[in-house]
Design goal:
The protein contains 14 helices and 9 strands. By secondary structure, it is α/β, with parallel strands linked by helices. Strands 1-9-6-5-2-3-4 form a 7-stranded mixed beta sheet, with helices on both faces. Helix 7 links the parallel strand 5 and strand 6. Helix 3 packs antiparallel against helix 4 and helix 5 packs antiparallel against helix 13. It starts with 13 loop residues before the first strand and ends with a helix.
Amino acid sequence: MGVNLRDLIPKDVIKVISDLRELRGKVIAIDAYNALYQFLTAIRQPDGTPLMDSKGRITSHLSGLFYRTINIMEAGIKPIYVFDGKPPELKAKEIQERMSIREEAKRKYEEAIASGDLEAARRYAQLSAKLTSDMVNDAKRLLDAMGIPWVQAPSEGEAQAAYMAMKGDAWAAASQDYDALLFGAPRLIRNLTISGKRKLPRRDVYIEIKPELIELNKLLKALGLSREQLVDIAILLGTDYNPDGVKGVGPKTALTLIKTHGRLERALKAIPTAKFPVEPTKIKEIFLKPPITDNYTLKWREPEEEGIIKILVDEHDFSETRVKNAIDRLKKAYREYIKATIRGLDMWFKRK
């Protein structure tokens, strides 16, 4: 779930991207698990049932990954998907809580279906979404066939994506969570994989969701903070590694505490009731010195039509006509934006 910093971010720091073509030519490292969960929750039948093949295997994540990625590439964006590795030990409590929430949501979904409450059924079905290792493997196979690079992170995918952006291998990290900023991403793009019209929960109202760009330096300057102090605030509010945070401390109070006392350790002394199940410095280290890797190669390739059809049509019963039409779009996007960029760089180096 990550840290919700929304209430701390000044509106003038958030740049709304009205058209994805504003990001043309940019390499963007996408938090793969975050995106796949978005596809699993958003792409469903009216009663909340996910898309499935004839064998009962869920395919919502593949549908979203395939078609949404093509939309992104048609805007001239070069995507990289970054997959989570082993989660930090401090995340165990959060993972257990998420599992409990999914189990409870599954039970309520079945009750809603039995009572005919389709609105509630859809809501609980979204909360019960689960990403399995088979789903992840299929997603990686599909990306390979599409000619799109993916990176296996040693631990948190957002940390790896942030590192790649800091290193200059990507222009920005993309995720729904704000944690990428805590990990040091110079730029965070939200809503990249879910933009479009979305229905508000429990209301027959649809809103337009557009991508947003947040630049870390602008945010820190606006708040008068260092990146480490922003991490301190996140810890007070509660992170995936200390979900409960400090009782009674909200965004504004956390900001005041850190600006007054300078750092987390001093701020905690000013809160006699503050209790931490783990040493706060261990949480800070996860954000400031996360496990990352340089063992990756970023190469976009010509899409393999046969490979895509094998995965989507032969194995998972996607419409062959629709998939082939989408492949044509993918090939065109590759030729016009990806291949042209690579050829341009090659020519530049030859002239040098």
